[in-house]
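Aim 2 progress update. The chain analyzed this quarter is reproduced below.
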Amino acid sequence: MIDFKFADIGEGIHEGVILKWMFEEGDKVEEGDTLVVVETDKVNAEIPAPESGILKKRGAEVGETIHVGETLALIDDGSEETKEEAPGEAEPEDSDEEAEEKATKKENKDDSASVVGAIESSDEVMEASNEHEEQEVSKTENTRVLATPVARKMAKDLGVDLAKVKGTGENGRIMKSNIKKAAEGKPSEAKAQAPSAKSYAMPKLPTERTRREKITKLRQSIVDAMDKSNALIPATTVMDEFDVTELVKFRKDQKAKAENYDVKLTYLPLIIKAIVLTLKEYPVFNASFDHETEEIVYKDYYNIGIAVDTENGLIVPNIKDADQKSIFELAKTIDSLANAARDRKIQMQDLQNTTFSITNYGAFGSKLGTPVIKHPEVAILGMGAITKKPVVIDDEIVVRDMFPVSLTIDHRIIDGGDAGRFMVKLRELLSDPIALLLS
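Predicted C-alpha cells:
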C-alpha cells in the first residue's frame, strides 16, 4: 500500500485546492498517469501516480484544501506494507523524548525507507531546491546520519549541520538535546534570521470606516518572496536613462516584417537580447550567492524572468535558454508565457530556475522605480516608459527617445562600479540596434 503524500512541488508552495480527480476510488491507475489536478497559488499542477495500482482512497475531494505532507491518495500496489511516496511533515510531538522514541521505532521497521541515511532522505518536507543543492548532495551522499524527523526539523530551524553533530542516542542517533547544545555552542553556525514583516504585530485600528479582505494564495506567495528578499538581500538601485532613438526607428521598420511571420515585435525581445549579451560580459549578474557556504554560484545558462501582471497578482515565468533564441523566437516565447500566466495555465517548470529578471512598469506609464530582487537571484532590471524628451547633443537641444532604466543589485557580491559598467554596456547595445544584432 502506498501512502502518496502531497509534496513541495517548488516555488514555496505549501498548499493547494483539489481541482479535478482523474480517477474514482477503486479504479486502476498506471504509473505516470495524471492522478489529480491541484490548483496552487501559481499553477494548476497535474500530479502523476507514483506507481501502478488500485486507488483505494482519495485524501481530499474537489474544492478541499490539501497541505504539503498530507495524504493525497492511498494506492494499493499489492504490497502489505504501507510505504510513503512523498515527504511529509513531522508529527506533532508529545514531548522531546517521546517524539524521538516514536520516530525511532518507526524507522527500525524498515531502515531502507526511513530517515536513516543521507541527510537529504528524511521524511521532513524539504524546501524547493537551490542552485547549490547538487553540491550539498555530493558532500553528504556517503554520510550516514541517524536522526528523527523531529530532530531534523529542529536542526533546520536552528541552522545546525547534522553532519557535524555527534549523537548520544542509540547507535549514535542525534537527539534534540544534541542539536540544542550544538546551536548554543556554535552560534555562528546557527545563522540568525533577520526580522521580517511577520515579526511585528499589527497595531490596533478603529473598526469604523475600515474593512478587511483576505489575501489570495498568489498574494501570499508574493508576501513571502518579498519578506525573504528583504531579510536576506542588502539591495541598492542604480538608475540611468538611455537614448534609444535608433532602437525605436529599428523596431518601427521591422514591425511590419515581423507581422508577416505572425510575430508581435515589441521592444522587450530586443531588450532581452541586449541583457543576455551584457550578462555574458558580466557573469556575476547571472549568478546566485550561497550565504551558508559563502560561495558565488555562476550559471552558464540564461533563463530570463519576465514579470507578468495578472488579475490575481504578479507572476514571473522565465524564458529558458534565452541566449539561444532569435529576436522573433524571443517575441513568440514572451507572448506565449504572458498569455499562459494570465490564463493560469503556466507550468511549474516555467517558473523555476530563473537567473535574471526584468519588470516593465513602463507598460503602465511609470518612468522610474526600485524593483525588488527575487531570491536567489542577485539582480533585477526595471524598465520605464520610452518617451520623447529634449536633450542636449553637441550644444544643441534636440528631441530624442529616452528610456529610463533601474538596476537593483545584491550588494553582498555586486558593487556600485559593477552596476555602472553593466549599465554602460547595456546602453551601448540598446543605442545601436545594428551592433546589437551583430554581437
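The radius of gyration is 26 Å. The CA atoms of residues 30 and 52 lie 4 Å apart. These observations will guide the mutagenesis experiments scheduled for the next reporting period.
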